[in-house]
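Hey, why these numbers?
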Amino acid sequence: MNLQLGLTPSGAFLPRRHDRTIERNKIDFVCLDPFVKTHGLTENDNNQMDQVIEFLANFAIEMNIAVDVPHHTAKGAANPGNADRGRGASAIKDGARLVYTLTTMSDEEAERFDRRLYIRMDSGKVNITPPAAAAKWFKLVSVVLGNGNHLYPDGDNVQTIEQWTPPETWEGLTDDLVNRILTDIDAGMADGERYSDAGAAKARAAWKVVQKRAPKKTEQQCREIIATWVKNGLILKETYYSLVTRKDREGLHVDDMKRPGKVT
């Protein structure tokens, strides 16, 4: 479906033929890719971008559909899960209900893989559902169309993606196991101390809780799991008064609303 919005600095409209096409074909999902091609306004102007986003939100409500607008990121280093990496005005991100980032593998992640074939999707902003406890990975694969003939025996291939799970680090971490680990972290230690994600932490090291529940994970893998949960807000850092050191120190708590499988 070729959807072109009529957008100007003074207003917005959608040709009625698009409404009829959506209704006639019972379309429930519309993807506008790329976002910049759906309007003729200034991408860095917050007021104009707010107008575009408001129009799309109203359009989705009126037609009872979901609208997805893939958007380019700004120049600079990749930062998975950072909703502010989107190009242009912040109103684009602010007006969205769900924002996800797509990032290729980093050099470190790709030590054993061809980084060009793997993409990770991270929660950047989620207003209507808990963020994912970990990134979702996808692999680029080639699909044979089987349209070869005697003049073109090999036929064509098209590229698509399939979901892919990175080996080892997140393998075997079911929602039930993750929730048991999170419960242990949130309960704290027997002496009242809170666990810590600090690199130099010893007895309070949160990565040890992961390893206790998942003994086959290495220390590095367990540290990566804790770091991911802290980054996406599943685990929070809060100040508490330590009866052991008799002073305030930082410890970890779990945001129960973001636990895997939690429905709000």
Q: What stands out?
A: Strands lie at 6-8, 11-13, 29-31, 66-68, 98-104, 118-126, 136-144, 157-164, 235-242, 247-254. The chain has three domains: 1-96, 99-165, 175-258. DSSP finds six helices and ten strands in the chain.
